[in-house]
Amino acid sequence: MTATSSTGTAITGSGVWHPEHVITNAELCEAFNEFVRRDNARRAAEIEAGREPLRESTPEFIEKASGIKQRYVHDRTGLLDPERMCPNIPDRPDDVMSVQAEYGVRAAERALAGAGRRGEDVDLVVLGCSNLQRLYPAIAVEVQDAIGGTGYAYDMAIGCSSATFAVHLASEAVQLGKAKCALVVVPELTTGHMNWRDRDSHFIFGDASVAAVIEPLANAKKGAWELVSTRAMSKFSSNIRNNAGYLDRCDPARDPADHKLFTQQGRRVFKDVVPMASKFIADHLADHDLAPADVGRFWLHQANQNMNDLIAKRLLGREATRLEAPLILDEYGNTASAGSLIAFSKYSDDLPAGAWGVLASFGAGYSLGSLLVRRI
Questions:
Q1: Is residue 211 part of a domain?
Q2: Residues 149, 357: contact at Cβ < 8 Å?
Q3: Catalytic residue flag (residue 250)
Q4: Dist. CA 306–CA 297, nearest whole Å
Q5: Which label site among 54, 283, 307, 324 has the fewest CB atoms less than 10 Å from its CB?
Q6: Helix (H, G, I), strand (E, B) or coil at 200
Q7: Containing domain of residue 316, as a range?
Q8: In degrees rounded to 5, what are phi and psi of residue 287?
Q9: How many folded domains does the chain comprise?
Q10: Contact 158, 367 (CB under 8 A)
Q11: What's the pLDDT tens digit per position in 287-302?
Q12: Is residue 325 situated within a structural domain?
């Protein structure tokens, strides 16, 4: 079957980078459980009076709940310190590249090499991620400067759909002639906004960066991926939140040192997102006269194995194989918006010319993104 239209753009290269440090579930639980024991001991009188004690975690619980076995992290020492439970990431001087920009540049170098391009070829940088290290100057502009790019650059954030939305925007810029070679960078330094003292989510996130080069289809070589269609959707929900912001210090009822972090109502998210994402992807395919069975690979948002498996099953009417819907979260953990693009970058080279694929995201907002691609 053939699609009825095309964006006239293509993903001509992609690349993944992650820090070298790894934390396994067993290591994470050892530190978390020691924190729990110490905290329960400190609050023994409150617990005796009826306060619910904190519960310990296990590697088996983590893997069953999420499918995650390990994660790459920027820093192990702070995360595995029961008294700190936060990564150690020292501030850098203003004349030194920021940590998040460094993440973006490392992935960008690999994506540009894959596309056969150099930094000076880039005339647009769209940086999308779930959380920004700072608001200004834009980290995208810092990346643009570091690679020697021209044109313009900007940051954007819409939770775990930031990567697919960024590709969507980069593709539109190329379509409109606003850019000839766009670079999407997704530097997800997620461990800094994770509450490592929360049993329900202390295991979720890992750090990684991914990038993709978007160019006119006419410039794409054999093996690249035509962006046939992009689609985005949002629907407000408070079930996934990170309330941290510059107004934190302005609330007179709060301790300025108290940090707001990632929170979610996991069961509600699962119940809401599975049917919403399944329909969103199926409708996108149907609008191009495609059925899920026509798709060679689904690179789904890598947040939770159970969620991905159920969405794929709803689409296909059967269990998907790991070849059809690959997972990277067992190795990387949840890398927020980077997950589906990492899965694409790592598990796309084996598909033949003409093969269809879908990159899909679903996250806070709620936000949903879908990229329909075809191998050239």
A1: no
A2: no
A3: no
A4: 18
A5: 283
A6: coil
A7: 225-375
A8: -65, -15
A9: 1
A10: yes
A11: 999 999 999 999 999 9
A12: yes
